[in-house]
Amino acid sequence: xxxxxxxxxxxxxxxxxxxxxxxxxxxxxxxxxxxxxxxxxxxxxxxxxxxxxxxxxxxxxxxxxxxxxxxxxxxxxxxxxxxxxxxxxxxxxxxxxxxxxxxxxxxxxxxxxxxxxxxxxxxxxxxxxxxxxxxxxxxxxxxxxxxxxxxxxxxxxxxxxxxxxxxxxxxxxxxxxxxxxxxxxxxxxxxxxxxxxxxxxxxxxxxxxxxxxxxxxxxxxxxxxxxxxxxxxxxxxxxxxxxxxxxxxxxxxxxxxxxxxxxxxxxxxxxxxxxxxxxxxxxxxxxxxxxxxx
Length: 294
Fold this sequence. Notes:
The chain is an alpha/beta fold. The protein is 49% helix and 17% strand. It folds into 2 domains: 215 residues, Malonyl-Coenzyme A Acyl Carrier Protein, domain 2 (3-Layer(aba) Sandwich); 63 residues, Alpha-Beta Plaits.
């Protein structure tokens, strides 16, 4: 069974999507439509901007979304998913690719999400850290012992968990996790504590936008971040999308469940190949590849 997976923030690179724009009239049309909706030429930043410009949250998130979604649209009849999932931001790309959300509505929600997250980051300085080489349970337990806000945010693959919280909380947790035997406790260069209770102001703002947006049943089940379970129910999809900003991304569990349900051919749609590597860490048996246009 074919599982299409969509990357999140961090996968961006200068030049992303340029080949699509130059080789597909449909891609060109969609990029130009996006430039209009966004109000600046995001395609120019994607194709030939600087790393610094591309790293701004209000650029990064729509850029990755556009690359993924436009690639899926250009695949046309070759895009035949049995199941889909996206990592964090990638969940929005997956929903548009699977026809649960329109291109325009998906893009508007991603812009609203990026802006809301940016504002939440400015309210309280906060950060994230990658913890390598410890069991999830150990990381969960140590986070719970720290008195500051620190929570598991991204369950990426066995032995790789990203934690999220206040700067002081992350520093304390990293110290304790290193003492507990973590191979590495590496603070990430991110603007804030994504997928933690510190994103509550963003969640409130995004909730109104999500509730006002039409979501249809997707063409196949989507495995959502907050519970790693498949659904095709628009009401459930909305609830899970709202919960996603403050809830953890359960990618390890998502890949495990997709494989258990018959997914054996994983195709990553969008920039980079990070998710393929994470899926391989869950199971060496499955096939992975990047979506390409002929």
